[in-house]
Design goal:
This protein is an alpha/beta fold. 35% of the residues lie in helices and 23% in strands.
Length: 845
Amino acid sequence: MNAELEHLWQGEWIDDREAEKLLADLPVLARTELSRPLPARQTVRACERLSRLLASPDSAVHQKLAGCLRESGADAASAATSLAEIAEFLSAESLERKLTAELGGTAPHSLGRADFRTPVFEAWAPIGLLAHITAANDPIVGVFSAVEGLLAGNVNVLKTSGGDSLFTHLILEALAAQDPDGDIAKRLIVLRFSSSRTHWLDLMCAPADAVAAWGGEEAIASVASRVGPGCRLVAWGHRISFAYLTADYWADDETLAGLADSICRLDQQACSSPQVVYLDTADPAALTAFAERLGPVLDERGSRIAQARPSLAEQAEITTTVLLARTEEHLGLTRVFESAEGAWRILVDHRSALRASPLYRTVWVKPLPREAITATLRPMRRYLQTVGLAAARPDVPGLAAHLFTAGALRVTPVGSMMDSYAGEPHDGQYPLQRYSRRVSVRLDERFMHDTRLDDMGAPGPDPAWRRPDPATPVMTKADVQALNPAVAPDKAQLHITSGGTSGTPALSVYTYADFRSQTQRAGEGLVAAGLDPRTDRVANLLYAGGMYGSFLYGHGLLEGITAAQLPIAAGNDYEQDARMIVRHRANTLLAMPSYIWQLFRNAGHILREYGGVEKIFYGGEHFGAEQRQHLSDTYGIGTIRSFVYGGTDLGTMGHQCSHAVGSVHHLFSDLFTLEILEVDSDRPVAEGETGRLVFTPHTRSAPAISRYEQGDLGRWVEGACGCGRTTPRFELLGRTGDVLRVGTYFLNYRKFQRIAETHLGYCGELQVVVEPGEERERVTVRLDRTAGVDAETANAAFLTHYSELREGLAEGLMDFWIESADPRAFQRSAGSGKLRPVVDRRQRS
C-alpha cells in the first residue's frame, strides 16, 4: 500500500489532500447516506462473517491483521488474544444479546407498536453523523465503537492517533468486505492524524450529531470545546478500579491468585484493572501481612503473563512514586514491597484516600472499613469504575450497595475484573443508546390494525445480505432433524414436537430469544388480521396435549399484544369447551380448522344460543371457503381469517390482513426470505406459476437453517394490497404431499376440494384415499355423509370438472369412488387431531 494512503474513506484508500477536500463535504455525505436505512441485522450478518475469519488462524484476514499488530509491537500471543477478543465481540450471538439488552431487540429501527391498545409506534433512530475520537495505542477501542455506531445505523467517521498503525482501518475494511450490498463501507470513514491538526478535528466535529471521545480530562475538554450546540458529547474518560477484600478472604489462596492475575493481566492498562487493594480493616499490621502474602503470588502468577515495558516517562513516574513512598516510610505512613527483579511493587499506605497507581504491576494496599466506604470514596465518584469484591456471601449485597452509593459502576469477582458479558453497560451507560435517539409516532384510529409502519414503506428488491446463496442445497425436515442433536445445550432451550400430521412427530429446538421473536411477530400478524386487543376476549383453543407447541405459541403471541386470553385448550368434549367459551364471554376463537369444524358440529347449538362469537382466527390447516361461509351464515361470525402461516421448524412466516382473500398471506419479510421454486427443480418459478415454498430465516440461530422446504405449494401475488402494506404476498395452494401421482397423472387434493365447494356447495371435511388394487390403483374421495351430498351427483361433478381424473379413468389407469362416511371415520393425526387430507395406502403396501 502506498505510504501516503493512510485514510479509509467509504471503502477507498486516500491521501491527506483528498481527505481534507472530502471532509469539507461531510454534511452532504451524511444527508445522502442517512436517507437509506442500515438494518442492525445487516451489520450483525457482516460481523458474524468477519468473526469466523478472525477466529480462524489460517484465514488471510486473520494473518494480515495479526501481522499488523505484531508490526506495531505486540507479541504473537497478545496479537492472537486481541483478535480472539474482537472475534467474540463480533459474533452474532454476542451482538444480538447486546442489541436486545440495550435497544430491546434485533430490529431496533423498526417503527413498531409500543402499546397495542393505542396506535403509538416507537423505534430507535440513528443519532446521525457520529464522530469517534479514539484513544492512542488501543487498537480495539475504535473497532468496538465503530461497530456500535453501525449497529445504531449511523454514518461513522473515526480519528485514530497519528502514531497508530493502520489496524483499525484494515479491520473495518475487512468488515465492510463482508457486506454484499456495500452499505457498511459507505457508513465508515477512518482517518489517521495527530490531534495537533486541529483544522481536521473541527471539520469532523462541526457537522457531527454526536462525538464519542476517549482520553483524560484534558483530551475530553479539548474535544468538548469543538462540539457545537445540540451535539451530544459521549465522553469515555479514564477510570480507576480497585479490589475490596474482607477478613474472610484476604488470606484466601484463590482470592490472592485472582487478584495477582488481574494486576498482571494487561499490566493494569485497562480501566477495569485494580490500581488499589482495599482491606476491610483499620489495622496497619493487617495491611503489612497481606502485602507479604501477595508478593510471592505476584512472582508466581506474573511469571506466566508476558510483561510490557513502560516508556521512559512511565518508568520515571513509577520511580518517583516508589521513592516518595519510601520517604514516607520514615513517617510511619507507608511501606514498600518490591520484587528483586523490579517486576512488581506493592505500596502499603495507612491512609484510605483513593490514589491512582503508576501502573505496570504497581498496586496500593490501603485500609477502608466498610462503614467508611461512602465517605472516603464518594468525592472520587466521577472516576470510579470496577470493584473486584471478595467477601462472604451474606456480606456481598450490603457491600455492593455501599460501593454503588460511593460511585462504583461494576462489582465483579477479583479474578475477573476485566471480563465482561454481552450487553454489559460501559462506564454505567449503554453505548447503543448513547449513539441513538428514541422516536415515536402517535396516529389515529385508522392505524389500530397496523403494527409496523415499516411494512407500509416503499417496496424494493430484497437486499443481497438477506438473499440465500442459490448454490446452498435446499433443506428438508429430515435435514433439520439431523441438525438438532448438534445444537449446543445452552441454545437448545425450548423443545417442541410437531403434531405428526404429515408423518412421525418431529422435534424442533429453539432458543428462547428466537421463539420470542416469532411469537412477537405472530401477535402483530393477529392484530393485522383484525383482532382488537382493547375489546376482544380470546379463547385459546390450540392444542395443549401432543401438539403443545401450538398452545405455547398462541399463549405467547396473545401475551405479547396484551390481549385478554382464556387458555381453554382444545379437547374432545366439545360441549364443555363451548360452555367455557360462553361462561367467560369469549368473542374470539383461536384454533385449528379441524377443531373449529368439530366444535360447531357438536356444540353449535350452545354457541348459536350464546351469539357472542364474532371472530375466528385459525392456523395450521387450510380452511375451505364453503366451510367459512357456512359458519358466517349460520352463526353470524363476521371475521374468519388465518392468524398466521407458520411451521414448527421455522416459526412465523406470514399473516393475513383485513383485505386477505382465501389463503393469501403477507410475508414477514423482516424474518424470512421466501423463494418459490419449481416442483421438480430448484429453479425459481416463472411469473404467476405455482411452486414449492422455500424459506430462509434471518433470526433462527439454533439450529442455523437456510433454504428450508416447508412442504407447501404456492405462488406470488402481484399488485398492491388494499391494506396499504407493501410486504410481499403469496398464496398457499396446498401441500406438496397433496399432489399425488396415480398412473401417469398428477391429482391435487386442493382441486378436489375446490370442485366440491364450487359445484356441490359442499362445506364439510374432505379426504382423498389412494389404495393399490388388483389391476389398477383406486382413488376414493371421502365426504361427510351428514352434509347431504348425493354420491352420484358428486361423482358426476368431479368427472366433469377434473379433466385429468376423467382422462385417467378413460385410459384405464385408475379407479374412482365416492365414499359417504361418518365424520368419525376420517383419519386424523393422533398428536394434533388435524384431518389428514391425503391418505396414501400404497406406501404401506
